[in-house]
Amino acid sequence: MRTSTAGRVGQYAALLGYLVFLAFPFLWLVSTAFKSPRELGSPHPTWIPRHPTLDNFRQAFDEQPLLRAAGNSLLAALAAAVIAVLIATPLAYVMARQRTRLAKAATGWVVVSQAFPLVLVIIPLFLVLKELRLINSLAGLVMVYVVWALPFALWMLVGYVRAVPGELEEAAAVDGAGRLRTLVSVTAPLLAPGIVATALFAFITAWNEFFFALVLLKTPEKQTLPVVLTHFIGAEGVADLGPLAAAAFLATLPSLIIFAIIQRRITGGMLAGAVKG
């Protein structure tokens, strides 16, 4: 009993430490966003601002076109998430149901492709987009985001498809439904939690992505929010800390809000699927 209790205490302590480790950067970011310049320069920083102010937010919007950049990021992220899910869902269905060598090789390639560094693929992607005349365009950026999100989206959805009982599809086939009808009417509704989770992953990945947007977008009017955040850092590498923290805090809100809204549905759907399975 003592060993079991000590083990649980150790597990809870490790979990608490991990949560603190994850939450510390965000909490410090929020604290910095509401501090005055005097507090930011203080040699004795505090967690809670002594004199909270919104001046950093006003200055951030005055210095940089955050709303326009956020609109570009939102458009690119939403388009990439929708297109990635539309492509990945039927492909994942085929890869999960067709247990052939080709399907196994495709699954292996999906996993291996995640190990490729961004620097390795940026030059080929740049040359391809240049030939298609999609450099410095949100359409070209969306195409890159879709390609980059597809491997992990496929990997996620293959697991969800395999969790759907095959007997349901066999029953639909007995009733005369074809593969496409079975996928749309039987499998897809059961995959809803997985599709939502995959779309969320693709959206957050595109929303937070910086490297591709920095290389492919040159016109200030088309730059996304992560790229615009770098403009708060001067030529000598000195950051305008208050406005930067305020802008970064606002940039994290969409991901947090979206996840807070749908996380219960995702968890509930996954648990329901596990019970049915």
Beta content: under 5%
Overall geometric form: globular
Structural class: mainly alpha
- Helix-residue proportion: over 70%
Number of helices: 13
Gyration radius from CA atoms, angstroms: 23 Å
Intertermini distance: 35 Å
Order of helices and strands: HHHHHHHHHHHHH
Give the SSE layout:
Elements: H1 2-33, H2 37-40, H3 55-63, H4 66-97, H5 101-113, H6 118-131, H7 138-163, H8 166-174, H9 179-190, H10 192-208, H11 211-216, H12 225-229, H13 241-276
Helix pairs in contact: 1-13, 3-13, 4-7, 4-10, 5-7, 7-10, 8-9, 10-13
Please describe what this structure looks like.
The chain is an all-alpha fold. Helices cover 78% and strands 0% of the residues. The chain contains 13 helices and no strands. It has helices at residues 2-33, 37-40, 55-63, 66-97, 101-113, 118-131, 138-163, 166-174, 179-190, 192-208, 211-216, 225-229, 241-276. Helix 8 packs antiparallel against helix 9. The longest helix has 36 residues, at 241-276. It is globular and about 75 Å long. Mean pLDDT is 81; it is low at 268-277.
